[in-house]
């Protein structure tokens, strides 16, 4: 789940003017209530450009340690001499790293394998534990999904040995009532 305090730090790091940064509420949000984060991101979308929102959200991301981190670092060490295309072709063998698809322009797209657990009425659902706490009906901007994209960006950077940037949040079950899975496009910086 996104952290408003981390998002404030990110705003400052990417050069958002202080008069805009000061318009957000950074109060301690005990209990990790997703509604407050959703409101915060809604204000970001009103006050910032899409590129600025993506730059902030790509710095988010939970679960950056553990097995996925060690698997991706091991993959990166094992395949460090291979081209980006070769690494992308092999990465689907790493557990939970999806099957990245090269777009032929130095970017690649990952699409999460959806599953249904009753959060949405469609074919796929959000994997964010905080979102699962929301009661139906709800719609959340796909900008919120930049947090999940930040998770994958971190692990893909470890696996590929490349500095990446979140280029686009292509789709999300959050703003499609579960009809489309999460899909992110990253590019090498």
Keywords for this entry:
single chain, 189 residues, alpha+beta, 2 domains, 4-stranded antiparallel sheet, 4 strands, 11% strand, globular
Descriptive overview:
The protein is α+β, with helices and mostly antiparallel strands and 189 residues long. The chain folds into 2 domains: 4-57, no CATH class; 66-188, no CATH class. The protein contains 7 helices and 4 strands. It has helices at 4-13, 18-21, 34-47, 50-57, 66-78, 84-91, 146-160, and strands spanning 101-102, 107-111, 164-171, 183-188. It has a 4-stranded antiparallel sheet.
Describe, in short, the structure shown.
The protein is an alpha+beta fold. Helix content is 38%, strand content 11%.
Could you give the order of the helices and strands?
A: HHHHHHEEHEE
- Total individual domains: 2
Question: Beta-strand percentage?
Answer: 5-15%
The gross shape turns out to be globular
- Secondary structure tally: strands: 4
Mean pLDDT: 88
Q: What is the topology, as strand order, of the major beta sheet?
A: 1-2-4-3
The low-pLDDT segments are none
């Amino acid at each position: 789940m996104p952290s408003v305090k981390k998002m404030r730090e990110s705003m400052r790091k990417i050069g958002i003017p202080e008069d805009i940064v000061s318009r957000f509420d950074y109060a301690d949000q005990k209990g990790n209530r997703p509604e407050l984060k959703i409101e915060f991101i809604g204000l970001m979308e009103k006050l910032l450009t899409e590129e600025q929102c993506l730059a902030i959200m790509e710095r988010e991301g939970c679960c950056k340690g553990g097995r996925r981190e060690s698997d991706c670092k091991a993959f990166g060490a094992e395949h460090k001499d291979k081209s980006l295309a070769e690494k992308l072709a092999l990465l689907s063998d790493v557990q939970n790293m999806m099957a990245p698809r090269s777009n032929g322009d130095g970017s690649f797209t990952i699409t999460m394998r959806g599953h249904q657990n009753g959060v949405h009425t469609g074919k796929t659902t959000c994997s964010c534990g905080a979102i699962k706490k929301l009661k139906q009906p709800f719609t959340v901007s796909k900008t919120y999904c930049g947090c999940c994209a930040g998770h994958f960006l971190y692990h893909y950077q470890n696996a590929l040995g490349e500095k990446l940037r979140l280029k686009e949040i292509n789709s999300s079950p959050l703003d499609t009532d579960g009809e489309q899975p999460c899909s992110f496009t990253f590019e090498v910086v």
